[in-house]
Amino acid sequence: MIFEFDRDQRLWRDTVRGVVAKQCPPRLIRSIVDAAADPAPLWQTYVELGWTELTDPDVAVELAIVLEELGRCVDPTPYLATMTQFAPLAPGFGHLERPGAAVLDGVSATRDGSGWLLHGTGRHVLDADRAEWLAVATEAGVFLVPAAAAIITRTPVLDPGLHIAEASFPGVRVGNDDRAAVDTRRARDLSLTGIALTTVGACQRVLELVLEHVGGRKQFDTVIGSFQAVQHKAADMHVAIERARALSYFAALAIAADDPRRRLAAAMAKAAAGECQALVFRHGLQLFGAMGFTWENDLQFALKRAQAGELMLGGADEHRALIAEEYRAAHL
Length: 332
Prior knowledge:
Oligomer: single chain
Number of domains: 3
Largest sheet: 4 strands, mixed
Protein name: Acyl-CoA dehydrogenase family protein
GO molecular function: oxidoreductase activity
Keywords: FAD, Flavoprotein, Oxidoreductase
EC number: 1.-.-.-
Order of helices and strands: HHHHHEEEEEEEEHEEHHHH
Cofactor: FAD
C-alpha cells in the first residue's frame, strides 16, 4: 500500500482545489447563510464535473481528496451525505445527479403481504430535507424510498450551513424490489472516513485563517506571530491536522484496497479527526482573540463545520472504545 499521492492524484487535488476556490468562495457561504442563497447551482457544477460519479470503492482516494477540499471550503451542498452515506447503501442506483440521504438507525421493517412496512423515526439525518431519495437501513435490509414518502423536519443546529433533519416513517409501504443487499459495515466505514476528511478540511481552513491573522496582527508594535506561545499553538494545530489527515487517507486506501483493516482504520480516522477539531477549535478561537467570536468573521463557519464533524456518527471517545475492543479481540 503506497502511502503518498501519485502524479495523477496530485493533479486531481490541484484541479479540485482550483475549482473549489473559484466556485465556492467564502462570500458564497455567507450569502447562503445570511441571505438564503440557493446552493443548487454549486451542486449542479459538481454533477457536471463528474464528481458525483466517484462511487466505486476503487476511487475512494480520489473521493477523499474531493471531500477534504469541500470540508476546507465549508461546502453548503448535500455532497457529503450523497456520496458517503447514500451512495454506499444504494449500489447500482446510477449516476447521482440528484441528492440522496441515508437513515442509518431508528427505523424498523415488518412484513406486510408481499411487501414491507417501515415504522420509526431516523434522527440527525444529514441532508434528508434536501434529498430526493432515502436509503433506509433496517434489520431486514436497506430500502430505497422516495423522500416524499417520509415526513421530514429540519432540525436547527450550530452550523448554519449544515442541514440536519428527522425522517419519520408512519407505516410507509415498500416492495421487495426496493430492498438492496448491501454490506452495511463497509458502507459505514466510508461514512466515517468521509466525515473525518471533511473535518480535517475544515480544521485546515481554521489553521490557514489563523496564520493569516497572526502574521498581520500587531501587539506592542510586534507581529503576534513572532511570539513563541503563538507559534507553539500553531505548531500543535498543524501536527494534529497532519495526524488526522494521514489516518483519514489510510482509511480511504484501506477501503479502495478492500483491506480487512478498513473498519479499524475508519474508526481511527474518526477518532483522530475528533481530537484534532477539539484542539484546533480551542487554539483557533484563542489566537483570534475577541474577533473570533464575531459573526462577521468567516472563522466561525470552519469552526462550526469541524465541530459538527465530531458530533456526527459518534465522537472520538466512542471510536477510541471501538478501537480498544478490536485490539482486545485480536489478542484473544
